[in-house]
């Protein structure tokens, strides 16, 4: 049995306990409506505000599948080398423009890049591939609207969607300049690695993952669908430079390692960081937990570097 009292420091435990006070571990047993209410309240409690000089504009873009709300963040000192398309986490059933509002604002302030957050449709009202279609539509909008390259960045479910877009757009004339995937779920082997070692980790469990997958697909067997499970792709060639950042105490961590290995084996560039002692969802702890603060700096550095078209790993 994994000894989390040894792996996780006091600061991170305080963050876990605070999170659990707003979002109890048994929240997946509630109705979807109630889960969203709980999650939204938790996000409000952790909201850290905007850095000075950052402004945001909320609007709607038309895509072939749906009208998609977005929020555009701009810095007082813009860096026009690239723009960031940010895809939020939330198990494909939670979250939106407000849940990751301050994260996107800080990413904008620290990189200088314009950041566009995408409010994709959620399950179970909109089953797969609705979220994928919305993000693909937003990516196509971005490449036709911005003169600079598009960088993909997302956490958890958003990391999954970023990777799915990268696989789907390899034949496009305008492809992502890179992707930064933060504790993504990529469809790894649930019988090995972190899926077993951290099946009952704080903040996210293997049971949670099964629940989110079943809600997203309506319970259908979608084995082999790379728009759901990017690791199911037989071809990892020609993917954009990729940085994967995972939490050690998270059942999804092995997906970062497996994806890195597949990209490198296909001749591409990918780097995987496993952050020691951190848990899924630690982005909300970036102002209170030293390890999370350092990891957020790593994320910003990865976004800034890939946006310049550089590779330093």
Strand order of the largest sheet: 1-2-4-3-5-6-7-8
Average pLDDT over all residues: 97
Distance between the termini: 34 Å
Q: Choose one word for the global shape.
A: globular
According to DSSP, the number of beta strands is 8
Order of helices and strands: HHHEEEHEHEHEHHEHEH
Q: Give the C-alpha Rg.
A: 18 Å
Largest sheet: 8 strands, mixed
Percent helix range? 25-40%
Low-confidence stretches at least 5 residues in length (pLDDT < 50)? Answer: none
Task: Determine the strand fraction and express it as a percent band.
Answer: 15-25%
The helix/strand class is alpha/beta
Number of helices: 10
Describe this structure in words.
Helix content is 38%, strand content 18%. By secondary structure, it is of the alpha/beta class. The longest helix is centred in the C-terminal third of the chain and has 18 residues, at 290-307. The protein is built from 10 helices and 8 strands. The model has no long low-confidence stretch (mean pLDDT 97). The protein has helices at 4-7, 10-22, 32-46, 101-111, 130-145, 157-168, 194-197, 206-217, 253-265, 290-307, and strands at 55-62, 67-74, 83-87, 114-118, 150-155, 178-182, 242-249, 270-279. Strand 1 (55-62) and strand 2 form a beta hairpin.
Please outline the helices and strands.
Elements: H1 4-7, H2 10-22, H3 32-46, E1 55-62, E2 67-74, E3 83-87, H4 101-111, E4 114-118, H5 130-145, E5 150-155, H6 157-168, E6 178-182, H7 194-197, H8 206-217, E7 242-249, H9 253-265, E8 270-279, H10 290-307
Parallel strand pairs: 3-4, 3-5, 5-6, 6-7, 7-8
Antiparallel strand pairs: 1-2, 2-4
Helix pairs in contact: 5-6
